[in-house]
Amino acid sequence: MRTRKVPLRKCVACQQMMPKKELIRVVKTPQDEVLIDLTGKKSGRGAYLCGKLSCFKLAHKSKALDRALKHPVHSDIYEQLAQDFIRVEDEFLAMKEQAHDEDE
Questions:
Q1: How many Å apart are CA 102 and CA 78, to the nearest integer?
Q2: CA distance 29 to 26
Q3: What does the alpha-carbon distance between residue 28 and residue 34 come to, in Å, rounded to a whole number?
Q4: CA distances from residue 55 to 31, 42, 98 in whole angstroms, order as listed
Q5: Do residues 29 and 44 make contact, with C-beta atoms less than 8 angstroms apart?
Q6: Disulfide: which of 29, 31, 63, 65 matches 44 by Cβ 3.0-4.6 Å?
């Protein structure tokens, strides 16, 4: 059986390459909304972050999301994303565990 190629993406904060499924996608939709996309399928420009809150804070401090999305991300959007990030973190970790179990 052939091994499948695992798509890699880079975290915009820590610049570490990881499998796409281990990163959280932040997307700027065509309607200029910035939100978290756990499915990875929403249309728009995407940027990837590690599942760590420290990486999210680093991205906010260095304005890495602004550069990656090619769109200014306002502080109120960062606050909303921070709340979403904390809420989504448990769901993301559960999905990551499930994907890891399926690979074995």
A1: 33
A2: 10
A3: 4
A4: 26, 22, 23
A5: yes
A6: 29
